[in-house]
Amino acid sequence: MTANHSPLRKWVDEVARLTQPEAIHWCTGDDEEFADLIRQMTDDGTLAALNQDSYPNCYLHLSDPSDVARVEHLTYVCTERQIDAGPNNHWMSPADGHAKMDALFAGAMRGRTLYVIPYCMGPIDSPYSRCGVEITDSAYVAVNMKLMTRMGSAALARIERDGSFVKGLHSTGDLDPERRFIMHYPEELSIKSIGSGYGGNALLGKKCHALRIASYQARKEGWLAEHMLIVGIENPHGETHYIACAFPSACGKTNLAMLIPPESQPGWKVWTLGDDIAWLHLDDGGTLRAINPESGYFGVVPGTNEETNRNAYAMIRHDTIFTNVARTANNEPWWEGKNEGAPAIDWQGRPYDPANGKAAHANSRFTVAAQNNPAYSRLAEAPQGVPISAIVFGGRRKSVAPLVYQAKNWRHGVLVGAGVASETTAANVGKVGVVRRDPMAMKPFCGYNFADYWAHWLSFADRSPRLPKIFHVNWFRQGQDGKFLWPGFGDNLRVLRWIIERCEERVAAVETAIGYLPASGDIDMTGLAVSDDDMSALTSIDEDEWRAEIDAIGVYLESYGERLPDELRAEQKRIAKELG
Ligand code: SAT
Ligand code: MN
């Protein structure tokens, strides 16, 4: 298969001249090709077959130990003017960015195969979908792209129809962290990434295209590309509300998207549409509709078990690629929190020795097609997407943020999103557990100046009277003893039910300066052992802490200078004043 589309052919020729591959392979995306690539990688040691009796079609990839997470400090947005990338991004001029990358790409694919991967983000026939082509020298990337996106001939046909696509050039290079860079050129709709084979750095359809480049496109075209899961919550009468939730990486988006209702909530069902990214568009009637641009999951493995996420546990029992987990003596995958079996070989391929730390890497991942998910929503493939009732922001906060609160209106909700903070996780290289601002959980992913991004969010208020309600949740609140106050996982449904009742205007709430909080007794606690004291700590605010928090948000927002929208500043001041 090759393209008729001449800009694509021309680009592939140019890249081949620069990178000097030994062979060029145009991906069709069919099952035979997938099987061939897997066979080739098990032959050359890129993948190891896991126990094919208990884990059919499951494989393990161990990355270079220096290449196990996203590298925000090496990730750049290259716009003509630095101010357009904003203080939230590392910046380089497009000319410098290309010069730097082209020097690194020169001859980078010698002796390797160049894969051309046409892909479509979103259902092939959706007007909201956008296509891209990734060129890579990694077969591991090619098979992951097959699981994560609509990849191959159908995408190529759409590219030929649309006449446009996002260009992504990737090479694993020599994996030297000194020669590792992830560059984005939003004004040219292109990406260049070298020196890493890890997920978010190398699967360019994901964070690079579907968030950084798409957020830029979305602003120009009047929609939103967000770091959000999409979930359908069906009540016992068969009515379903769709909710989009933004949490930073490794804060439980996949678990919430696949939530299993506790036994005490009979008749409730939860359907997954997406676990990481949502593209949101206003339809002609002013309803905000969401599609998931991806078609698979690249989820955190540790902690996944029968109790925490039964659906995920079943889903990754077959047809799954594991990255950086450990193995048992029986050649089954193993990870901390699996609650079954014991590690024999760690994620670096060494005999397991607790002195070397964890058996599986804290950011070890599974890649699996969404179709494997027993709770996959039948509307996940719908070209028109699903109507969103509520947008939920959240972070990992030991203190300050209550279990749940509702913004008073859209403008206030934008401030709530802009003020999101979270303790850092293993999904990014760097220190874990430090609180940092992560507006809309997009700090690593917004492809342009956050100040302009907030203005874009605010502009929706004038475009529709029927926008979703906005909430903030925190599943990670701790007591004085450092224990989590809220059980999380399936019990989060109780909080989602309150959110839905608020959307349907069926329940009152307690008004405070920071928003509406649940009144005592309004969150269903049937069958749940959380003490009254803990519940009141979870559903109240400490005004001193909040005065400090709102001040800190004000200082953070001001760091965006002149471009900061006045409306946002005014909203922060209003709350500061109400808190007194
Ligand atoms: O960036 S990845 O997509 O690899 C994982 C994450 O951080 O959410
Ligand atoms: Mn993510």
Structure description:
- By secondary structure, this protein is of the alpha/beta class.
- It folds into 3 domains: 194 residues, Phosphoenolpyruvate Carboxykinase, domain 1 (3-Layer(aba) Sandwich); 271 residues, Alpha-Beta Complex (Phosphoenolpyruvate Carboxykinase, domain 3), CATH 3.90.228; 75 residues, Beta Complex (Phosphoenolpyruvate Carboxykinase, domain 2).
- It contains 16 helices and 29 strands.
- The strands form 6 sheets. Strands 1, 4, 5, 6, 7, 8, 9, 10 and 11 form a 9-stranded mixed beta sheet that branches. Strands 12, 13, 14, 15, 16, 17, 23, 24 and 27 form a 9-stranded mixed beta sheet that branches.
- A hairpin with a 5-residue loop joins strand 16 and strand 17.
- Helix 11 packs across helix 16.
- The longest helix is centred in the middle third of the chain and has 17 residues.
- The protein is globular and about 65 Å long.
- The relative contact order is 0.12.
- The structure holds sulfoacetic acid and manganese (II) ion.
- Sulfoacetic acid binds next to helix 7 and helix 8.
- The site of manganese (II) ion has 3 residues, from loops.
Sum up the structure in keywords.
Phosphoenolpyruvate Carboxykinase, domain 2, binds manganese (II) ion, 9-stranded mixed beta sheet, Phosphoenolpyruvate Carboxykinase, domain 1, alpha/beta, binds sulfoacetic acid, 580 residues, 28% helix
Tell me the layout of helices and strands.
Elements: H1 6-19, E1 23-26, H2 31-44, E2 48-49, E3 59-61, E4 75-77, H3 82-85, E5 90-91, H4 94-105, E6 113-121, E7 130-136, H5 139-148, E8 150-151, H6 153-162, E9 166-171, E10 181-185, E11 190-194, H7 199-202, H8 205-221, E12 224-226, E13 228-234, E14 240-246, H9 253-257, E15 269-274, E16 278-282, E17 288-291, E18 296-300, H10 310-315, E19 321-323, E20 326-327, E21 333-334, E22 365-369, E23 386-394, E24 404-406, H11 410-418, E25 421-423, E26 435-437, H12 450-459, E27 469-473, H13 492-503, E28 510-512, E29 515-517, H14 532-538, H15 543-558, H16 566-579
Parallel strand pairs: 1-6, 3-19, 4-5, 4-10, 7-9, 9-11, 14-23, 23-27
Antiparallel strand pairs: 2-3, 6-7, 6-8, 10-11, 12-16, 13-14, 13-15, 16-17, 17-23, 18-22, 19-22, 20-21, 24-27, 25-26, 28-29
The site of sulfoacetic acid (SAT) has 8 residues, from helix 7 and helix 8.
